[in-house]
Amino acid sequence: MAKYTDVIVEVKGQIGTIKLNRPKQLNSFGGNLMLDVIAAFRELDNHPDTIFTVLTGEGRFFSAGADVKAVSSQETPAFANDADKKIFYLARFASALELMRTLIDHRKVFVLALNGPGVGGGAVWFQGIADIVLASSTCYLQVPFSSLGLVPENGSALSFAQHMSIHRANDFLMFGRKLSAQELEQWGMINRIFPVEGFHGAVQGFLEGQLSVNDGKSMMESKRLMNAPLREGRMMAVLNSVDALAERFVEDAPKKRFEVKKRELEEKSRAKFEEQHPLVYNRDSFSSDTSDSHELDDFDVEDAYKHTALSPSQRRRSQSFSHLLPWRAGRHSKWLGGPWKWTRLLKRCSLLVVIFLLAYVVFTPILRPSYLRRPAHYSGKNEKGEKVFIAANIVDEELIKGEWGKRVAELVNLLGKDNVYLSVYENDSGQKTKDALQGLKARVECNSSIVSGHIDLEHFPSIQILPNERRIKRIEYLSEVRNKAIEPLTSGSTGMHFDKILFINDVIFSPKDAVDLLFSTNIGSDGKTQYRAACAMDFINAFKFYDTFASRDAEGYGIGVPFYPWFTGAGSGTSRKDVLQHRDAVRVKSCWGGMVAFEAKWFQGQHSPPYPNNEKDQDSGWEEVWEDMVDEPKPIENRSESENEVGMAPLTFRASQELFWESSECCLIHADLAAMAALYSKTSKPTQDFDSGIYMNPYIRVAYSSESFAWLEFTRRFESLYTVPQSFVNWLASRPPFQPRRTANPGDIVEHREWLYDGPEYKHEEADDLEERGASRGRDLIAKIQQNGHWTTKKTKAMPGGFCGGRQLLVLKKSWQPGERMWEKISAPPGADDH
C-alpha cells in the first residue's frame, strides 16, 4: 500500500477507508491532502477485495474545505491580460477537476461518512457524488460561496438540485443556510445518523452488516447502472463550475468580498471588545466549551474565519489566572484602593511596556544595526597587487551564464587580470554546462583552467556496508571534486606564486565584498591581513544562515539556531561574544559560508621552516599522525635546509574513512590547516584565547538566490533584535548538540567507538542481482547493516578535526531520478554509546 502524508488508508475485509488526516487544520484541503485523496481513491479502485470505499475525517471536523491560509500565502504573478489570468486559475483548479473525475468514475460503492461538520468544499464536493451518506449527530453543512463572491464548486449546483430540489439547493448554496444532520436526513441528503461517540466503529459495523446479507458484486453493479447515465451530466457540471469559478477570480470578486468581510469582522470584534472589561472576564461569555464555539456565523469557518474578540488560548489564560486577582467581578479590594484604581495602574504599566518594546524595535535598527557599517579600511581594492587563485565547482549553466558568471568577471577586473588565475572544475553535468563554462572562459581576461571532467563511479573508492552492497561516501566524492579545482595550484602547473586562494560556491555575491574578504579581514598594524582562513556567511533566505555542517565555533562547538548571533554561549562563548561586538574576524575553528579565503602558501607546499634551526618541538607529540595525512614527508631532523623551505606536501581536501562518522571536507580542511600551522611554527600554535587564525567575517554575506541576496543589506539592520530569542531557542532546542570527539587534540591517545563491518566479502555478481531486486531503504537497511557489523572500542591517535564529525553516513544513492539529490543519509545503528 502506498505511503501518504495527509490521509490514512486502511483495508479491513471488503471495506477500504480513507481518512482525512489534518485535524489541526480542520481537514482543510491544503498540503498534500488533495493529491493524497486522489491517489488513495485510485488505489482502492484497483484493490481486488474491497466493495465499499469509505471517506471520513480525523478529529471533530469532516473538512473545512479549502485551506484559506495556504491559498492566501500563495504568490500570484502579474498577468498580461484577462485571458492569461483565467488560464492561470484554470491550471490552479486542475487538481480539483481530477479529484471529481476520480470520484465520478470510482467503481466501488462510495460511502461518505461525515464524522463532523463540513464547510465550503468539505460540504459539497463529495455529498452529491457519494452513493451512501452516513453522518454523526454533530454534523452540519454550510457554504460561504455567495458571501465570498464565489460560485457552487465542482458541479454541486447540479448534484444538490438533483438530490434536494432546486429551491432547497438555492437556499443552501446561494444563501448559505446551515443544515443540520437531521435536516439533511429529511431532505434526502443523508441515509443514516449515528452518535458521535464511536462513530467510525458504528460505520464499520453497519457496512459489515450490509455485506453479510448482500452480494458485493451486485451492489457494485447497481451503482454502475445508476451512475452511468449520469456521468456525462456530472462531468459537464464540474467543467462549467470550474469555468465559472475562474471567471470570478478574473474579476477579483473573491478578493473584493473578502476585504469587505474582513472590515466587517474587525468592526464587530472592536465593538465587542469595547463592551467588555479589559481585565475581568465573564466565564460564561468566554467559555471555550459553549455550543457557540462549534457554530458558523454567516460565512465563517472555525479557525479560518474566526471573529471573536479573544482567541481560545487567550480565553483559557484569562480563566486560569482570574482566581489570582484580588477581586471578582463586583467585589472590591480595600487594601488596593478598589479594583478600578488597580486596573488603571495595570493599564498604564502595560502601556509603558508596549511603548518601550515598540521603541526598542524601532530604534535598535537605527541606532544599533548589526554589521551594517563596514570598517573604514574596506575599500574593495587590491591595493598591493596580490596574486589570487580563484577556485570553484559549479554545474548550473543558468548561474554560469547569468549572475554568477557576471560577478566572477567583475571580480577578476577588480583584482586585476594579471593577478588572477581562475580554476573551475565540473564533471558529468552535460553539454549545456560545458558550453556555459566555455562562454565564461571567453568573458574573463585572465589565466584560467576550465575543466569539464568525468569521474568513473564504478571504480571510485567505496565502502562496504552489506555483503552485496558497497557505497560511495559523499564527502569522499566532494573532496575529490574540490581537489580537482585546486589541482593547478597544488601541482604547481600555473607558473605563478599566489598570496591568497578564494573558493566560491554557486552563490550570489558582491565582487567588492569578495575583495574585502581577501584583503581587509583582520588587518594588522602593518596593514596586512592576519588570517590563515577567512569565511563569508551564506544565507538560504534573508534571515537564515545556511552552512551549519562545516561551521564550528572557537572551541569546536556546533552552531546554534541559525539566526543572529548564530553561535551559542557554550564554553566561554568566544564566537558569540565576537559577533555581539561586531568584529570582522569572529574566531572560529572552521567555517565555509559559500565563499572562503585562505593563505595560499599552505596549498603550494611553501611554508616557513617548521622550527628554527631544525629544533624539533618535543611536546607536539603527533608528527606520526600528520605523516599519515601527507605524501610521506621526511622526518624533520633529516630534512635539508632547502627542504625545510619547501616544507610539507600541499594541503588538500580529505574525508574520514570511518563508517558512520562523517565530517564535512570544508571543516576538515580548516582542522588540517590549524594542525599544520601548529606543527610548523611555534608562534602559530593556538593560544588560550582560542585564536587559530581562522575567522568568520559577518560583514561579507552571500546568498543562494538573487532575491535573498537583495534583502541581506536590509535585514541585517534588525539582527540585534534576535539576540535574546535566539539564546532562548538554543536552550529550548538543546543547542549545541553533544560532540563526542570535540576535545580530542591531534596526537592524543584516545578511545572512541567505531562501526566494524564483519559480514561476507563483497561479490560484484551478487550485487548486480541485488540491484535488480531493489536495494533496502530506511529502517530495513539499518536493520540489515546491524546484522553485518558491530560497534567496537578502538584506541588510536586522534587526527585533526574530531570536532567536525557526527554519527551518520552520507552516501551515493543506488539510483535516483533526474532532479533528485544523488545522496542520502543513513542513520547510525544503535549502540554507539558515545560519551
The major pleated sheet works out as: 9 strands, mixed
Q: Which structural class is indicated by helix and strand composition?
A: alpha/beta
Number of strands: 24
Low-confidence runs: 277-336, 607-623, 628-646, 770-774
Strand order of the largest sheet: 12-11-10-15-19-16-20-18-17
CATH architecture of the largest domain: Alpha-Beta Complex
Overview in brief:
This protein has 835 residues and is an alpha/beta fold.
How would you describe this protein?
Helices cover 38% and strands 15% of the residues. It has 835 residues and is an alpha/beta fold. The chain has 4 domains: 7-251, 2-enoyl-CoA Hydratase, Chain A, domain 1; 255-322, no CATH class; 388-538 and 584-709, Spore Coat Polysaccharide Biosynthesis Protein SpsA, Chain A; 749-827, no CATH class. The strands form 6 sheets. The protein has a 9-stranded mixed beta sheet with strand order 12-11-10-15-19-16-20-18-17, with helices on both faces. Strands 1-2-3-4-6-9 form a 6-stranded mixed beta sheet, with helices on both faces. α18 links the parallel β11 (420-427) and β12. It is globular, with a radius of gyration of 34 Å.
